[in-house]
Design goal:
Blueprint lengths: L8 E12 L5 E11 L3 E5 L10 E6 L2 E10 L9 E6 L11 H10 L1
Length: 109
């Protein structure tokens, strides 16, 4: 059974990620959204290790929003280089559309 609280949409969206890594060093890097929901996303292609609970800023095109790291993929596993993010409640929906509408667009497209 799937433990997710909201539906996911598979994506390949380029993003820029800013924050502080697991060594307390500031970083900025390019990555990609692997899937998204109305409340968060999975980012892959992360070269810097980050800690769960850390707040990161994610930018897509000109839009930015802050997210909390919920989980990180362990090195040596299929999830290495991935992080699970949850959008902070006060932040805008970065993907530009409500997920329900986006799901319908993907299904039609």
């Amino acid at each position: 059974m799937d433990r997710r609280r909201s539906p996911r949409v598979t994506a390949q969206l380029p993003v820029r990620v800013w924050g502080v890594d697991a060594h307390d060093l500031p970083f900025m890097q390019l990555a990609r959204v692997k899937n998204l929901s109305g409340t968060g996303a999975v980012i892959h292609g992360m070269h810097r290790r980050v800690r769960p609970g850390e707040i990161l800023e994610v930018q897509m095109d000109r839009e930015k929003a802050q997210f909390r790291v919920v989980w990180t993929g362990m090195p040596g596993t299929h999830a290495a280089g991935e992080i699970g993010l949850q959008r902070l409640a006060s932040e805008p929906h970065l993907w530009g559309v409500a997920l329900g509408c986006y799901s319908e667009l993907v299904a039609e497209g």
